[in-house]
Specification:
By secondary structure, the protein is an alpha/beta fold. The chain is built from 13 helices and 13 strands. The protein has 2 domains: 133 residues, Aspartate Aminotransferase, domain 1, CATH 3.90.1150; 247 residues, Type I PLP-dependent aspartate aminotransferase-like (Major domain) (Aspartate Aminotransferase, domain 2, 3-Layer(aba) Sandwich), CATH 3.40.640.10.
């Protein structure tokens, strides 16, 4: 059984703050600052350019990819990190369309994170006429997976409500209809057990700065199923995806397997932070993490519903939700700003969502109770009804 008291001690959490926003940006692991400093001084500073070899910088995207692969249920050697999540969505989508010629419809849902849809729209502008991005309500995805669909582009957990798609069932349905699947795991990786190989996913992408706690700007990852790895066309054919990048061949030859999904120079300092963050996961039982997450989420829902009139936006059925709890209120933004000012940090998503990440690695029952009590006090006293809490900040 995972000791969550032990894992909590592995984070540098500010005194007096209850942090329920790890679904947006994970907190700082205590080991990260020293690990990044060592990379700066002992590797970059002392070894200069030699560190690409002596410190294995060039090999880190695959090594870290495999460590993430274990958290998402991937086969060894099928996951690599680098670039941003938007870029990885673009790569996966272009590759999937190339693997499924003759079909021209991308199916997504209206709850998907906007950047995924932007990437799809941008890609389609570069393709011949006749390609289509089709979006439907999340609950209608299954009935819209038909024989004209080339690929489904779905985020497993809805970033607003926390509603969770059934990866296995939708992937089977897609394959039965001749479609491929891309799963965005931005709100899944590190939140609960994921099974991309067992579930039959064709591609999966995700970020590392949320539940994986690798810091702002941390690199994304991409998974490609073994059956596609030697045939996927990455579209963004960067030099590090070349079979022999230091041959400086003017003609692109894709690297072997997942290597072809590399694009630009690895972000070395961010990889150092990611390496330290992944150390936290050593010895963590993901099933225990999921069970604890559901316990804490249910505790928050019960406390908030008993003391406020907020409307629950997250599904009550545990099987249908990720690791966040969301509530609706017309004054959600101002309420959240007042809550943050009181030392309880969640976040707001338009138009009316107050969102709370449930992260058992460092959250306790006491944190949940304090957050619910503070929220109730703010609503009861209308402390949120002040001009400074209504003024919109650049990041919500």
């Amino acid at each position: 059984m995972t000791d969550f008291t032990r894992t909590r001690a592995l984070f540098d959490l500010p005194q007096g703050i209850t942090y329920l926003d790890g679904n947006s940006l994970g907190p700082l692991p205590t080991a990260t600052a020293d690990r990044v400093a060592r990379t700066v001084t002992q590797e970059w500073g002392a070894q200069l350019i030699s560190a690409w070899n002596t410190a294995d910088w060039m090999a880190m995207p695959r090594a870290l990819g495999d460590r993430i692969g274990r958290l998402i249920g991937a086969e060894p050697g099928q996951t690599v990190i680098g670039d941003t999540l938007s870029i990885k969505v673009f790569q996966a989508l272009a590759a999937a369309l190339h693997l499924n010629p003759g079909r021209r419809v991308i199916l997504s849902d209206t709850g998907n994170f906007p950047t995924d849809l932007y990437m799809a729209e941008g890609l389609l502008k570069l393709l011949p006429d006749g390609f289509e991005l089709r979006t439907v309500p999340p609950e209608d995805v299954a009935q819209n997976i038909t024989e004209d669909i080339a690929v489904t582009l779905l985020t497993e957990v809805d970033y607003r409500t926390g509603r969770r798609h059934d990866m296995g069932a939708l992937t089977r349905l897609a394959h039965d209809n001749g479609a491929l699947t891309i799963w965005d795991l931005a709100h899944s990786a590190g939140a609960f057990p994921v099974h991309v190989a067992q579930g039959g996913a064709d591609f999966a992408v995700g970020c590392t700065y949320k539940y994986l706690n690798a810091g702002p700007g941390a690199p994304a990852f991409i998974y490609v199923a073994p059956r596609h790895a030697e045939h996927a066309e990455p579209a963004l054919a960067g030099w590090l995806g070349h079979k022999a990048p230091f041959a400086f061949d003017l003609n692109y030859i894709p690297g072997a397997g997942i290597e072809r999904m590399r694009v630009g120079t690895p972000p070395v300092l961010q990889m150092a932070a990611l390496e330290a963050a992944l150390d936290v996961w050593e010895g963590v039982d993901l099933d225990a993490l999921r069970a604890r997450s559901l316990e804490l989420a249910d505790r928050l829902v019960a406390a908030v519903e008993a003391s406020t009139d907020l409307a629950l936006a997250t599904p009550r059925d545990p099987a249908m939700r990720g690791s966040q709890v969301s509530f609706r209120h017309p004054q959600g933004y101002a309420i959240m700003q007042a809550l943050i000012a009181a030392g309880v940090i969640g976040d707001f998503r338009a138009p009316d969502i107050l969102r709370f990440g449930i992260t058992p690695l460092y959250l306790s029952e006491g944190d949940i109770d304090h957050a619910a009590a503070t929220l109730a006090q703010i609503l009861d006293s209308r402390a949120w009804d002040r001009p400074e809490y209504r003024a919109r900040k650049p990041v919500t």
